[in-house]
Automatic annotation (TrEMBL):
It comes from the Bacteria. Signal peptide: none annotated. It comes from Sphingomonas rustica. It holds the Pfam family ETF_alpha. This is Electron transfer flavoprotein subunit alpha/FixB family protein.
Length: 309
């Protein structure tokens, strides 16, 4: 069984989410990678070193510079004659491309898998992660998105895959890149951080969020996250959001400050190894999953904690 993994990258380096997808694909059979980009030869060379990969397909064309799903999906479909499954990291971009590939192949997409039980059998979360379903696909071609927190990351060295240039399908003419506003930070990326400090609506304002959460995160060398309520209130941009409708994370330490613990938030972080909750409501649902809970006024506790670190 040959599996094609779409490589998420920024035309400069492979993103971490791809590595978990490679691990999942390796449990299905032979792993091939697709690097679609513009000026992405360096990314292809980096991808070729990933352990367990036997071939890297490189589609280098300006049409793929920004990873537009309308352009990338037909390219993947054109390569599926020689592959049995297409695998994507379950990121924003991966989830944008995968359904289009499934539709063009006329197959059912298998989303957010947690494990590979066999060549056509997988587990995935349902009901916001409160239950795990085992699903079996009878489709000849599989289209799968992989939850990055459920699989170990493949080693970035030790591989010696060949790189093969492939002809792209070009610009489909259905969409165009206009601009991107990307928040730049010296802190770790949220989905790959070992420590995350997240704030909720209880912080009261964007000013309080930045004044309390960011100094604590900086002391811990942590990434900064937020609940959906904090994002909806305009405290921080939506790329900070952790949860079922945000980013799925599983750091070594997750610090939840002023977060009540709605189901959709828990679905995005409950696989964290150690969860620390700070909340004045002792009945808040977050305490049901927390390893360490501190009941009290966050406006007093957080500055004191930051000062003592």
């Amino acid at each position: 069984m040959k599996t094609l993994v779409w490589v998420e990258h920024d035309n400069a380096a492979v993103k971490d989410a791809t590595l978990a997808a490679v691990t999942a694909a390796g449990q299905l059979g032979e792993v091939h990678l697709l690097v679609a980009g513009s000026g992405a030869a360096g990314v292809a060379d980096e991808a070729a070193k990933i352990a367990g990969v036997t071939k890297v397909h490189l589609a280098d064309d300006p049409a793929y510079a920004h990873g537009l799903a309308e352009n990338v999906a037909p390219l993947i479909v054109s390569l599926m004659a020689d592959h049995d499954a297409a695998v994507f990291p379950a990121t924003t971009t991966g989830k944008n491309i995968a359904p289009r590939v499934a539709a063009l192949l006329d197959v059912m997409q298998i989303s957010d898998i947690l494990s590979v039980e066999g060549p056509d059998s997988f587990t995935r979360p349902i009901y916001a992660g409160n239950a795990i379903a085992t699903v079996q696909s009878s489709d000849a071609k599989k289209v799968i998105t992989v939850r990055g927190t459920a699989f170990a990351k493949a080693e970035t060295s030790g591989g010696s895959a060949s790189v093969e240039a492939v002809s792209g399908t070009g610009d489909a003419g259905l969409s165009s890149f206009v601009s991107a506003e990307i928040a730049k930070s010296e802190r770790p990326e949220l989905t790959s951080a070992k420590i995350i400090v997240s704030g909720g609506r209880a912080l009261g304002s964007g000013e309080q969020f930045h004044a309390l959460i960011e100094p604590l995160a900086d002391k811990l060398g942590a990434a900064v996250g937020a609940s959906r309520a904090a994002v909806d209130a305009g405290y921080v941009p939506n790329d900070y959001q952790v949860g079922q409708t945000g980013k799925i994370v599983a750091p070594e330490v997750y610090v939840a400050v002023g977060i009540s613990g709605a189901i959709q938030h828990l679905a995005g972080m409950k696989d964290s190894k150690v969860i620390i909750a700070i909340n004045k409501d002792e009945d808040a649902p977050i305490f049901q999953v927390a390893d360490v809970g501190l009941v009290g006024d966050l406006f007093k506790i957080v500055p004191e904690l930051t000062e003592k670190l």
